[in-house]
Specification:
With about 210 residues, the chain is α/β, with parallel strands linked by helices. It has 2 domains: about 55 residues, no CATH class; about 120 residues, Sugar-phosphate isomerase, RpiB/LacA/LacB (Ribose 5-phosphate Isomerase B, Chain: A, 3-Layer(aba) Sandwich), CATH 3.40.1400. Helices cover about 35% and strands about 20% of the residues. A 5-stranded parallel β-sheet has the order 8-7-9-11-10, sandwiched between helices. The two termini are about 50 Å apart. The relative contact order is 0.12.
Length: about 210
């Protein structure tokens, strides 16, 4: 015989098969005022005799969803700094930040140098866990950013993210070149990037 403590909503039964005998054993605990109430698991089986007993006693029964809630998705706070402006870049950034349920700061910068300076500041101050820089000079931007110890910057010049690079370096600053890329390519790369959760500054990748 298994049961949980009673409450105003009725007695919670944990049995997977609910028989008339089970209901009879708990009938006193299941009363709330003048009513008789039970709560059972969503997939519990009610026997025909149990259904007859409920009808004869005028008892109420409620099924509860006992499925486990899905685990929470880890998200990070990202800044998206646009050092090289174009309608395609700005549309891709707008689309991703609108569709993803996470916090992104979008900033139009005056230049690549301005974007790098802001990226370093945001990482070292802990304002964001990751920064994306859109620039037509990704290698230079990453090189300058990496002069700061807290920064792990990587240039992305290809049409897809380099998974080996992401795993090995775990960059917290990604410098993306928008040159010769379509809206779809930029959107997909940006979305894949901001779904990551970079390690904190000073922590070794995978540590």
């Amino acid at each position: 015989m298994q049961r949980q403590n009673s409450d105003p909503a009725g007695i919670a039964l944990s049995e997977r098969v609910i028989t008339a005998d089970v209901l009879e054993q708990h009938r006193g605990a299941g009363r709330s005022g003048s009513s008789l109430r039970f709560r059972i698991q969503s997939k519990a089986l009610l026997t025909p005799a149990a259904n007859d007993w409920l009808r004869e006693q005028g008892a109420a029964i409620t099924r509860e969803d006992t499925a486990a809630a899905p685990p929470a998705t880890s998200t990070a706070s990202w800044a998206i700094l646009i050092g090289t402006h174009s309608p395609v870049v700005e549309n891709a950034v707008s689309d991703v930040t609108r569709r993803l349920n996470q916090h992104c700061h979008n900033v139009l910068c005056s230049s690549t140098a301005d974007a790098v300076e802001q990226a370093i500041s945001r990482i070292t101050r802990g304002e964001q866990q990751g920064v994306v820089i859109f620039t037509d000079r990704p290698a230079l931007a990453a090189c300058i950013a990496n002069r700061q110890q807290a920064v792990r910057a990587a240039p992305i010049c290809g049409r897809q993210l380099d998974n080996a690079l992401l795993t090995g370096l775990d960059p917290n600053v990604l410098c993306l070149s928008p040159s010769d890329r379509t809206f779809i390519e930029l959107r997909n790369m940006l979305e894949d990037t901001v779904r990551r959760v970079p390690a904190p500054p000073g922590q070794q990748p995978g540590g």
